[in-house]
Specification:
Elements lengths: L1 E5 L5 H13 L6 E6 L4 H10 L9 E6 L2 E7 L2
C-alpha cells in the first residue's frame, strides 16, 4: 500500500513535519509517495539520518516535469 502526499501547495516550513507524520502512520512494508516542486534530496538525507524505519535503499525519485518530482519513501 502507498499513501500520496502532494507538497506543492504546502508552505515550505510545514512540509517536512507533514512528511514525518504521514511516514510515521505507515505500516512496515508500505511506502509514502510525495509529489514535490523540487528534488527532495535534502528530505532524503534527513530521513536517512533520523528515521530508522526509512528504507533508503528502496527510495526512488522521478522528475515528471519542470516542477514535478515524485518520490517514493519506503518503510522497513
Amino acid at each position: 500500500m502507498s499513501d500520496t502526499l502532494d507538497l506543492r501547495d504546502i508552505p515550505a516550513p510545514k512540509r517536512h513535519p507533514k512528511v514525518h507524520d504521514a511516514f510515521g502512520n505507515l505500516e512496515s512494508g508500505e511506502a509514502l509517495t510525495l509529489v514535490n516542486d523540487h528534488d527532495p534530496k535534502p528530505l532524503f538525507y534527513e530521513m536517512q539520518a533520523e528515521i530508522a524505519d526509512f528504507d533508503a535503499e528502496r527510495y526512488e525519485v522521478e522528475e515528471r516535469g519542470e516542477n514535478e518530482f515524485v518520490a517514493t519513501l519506503p518503510k522497513k
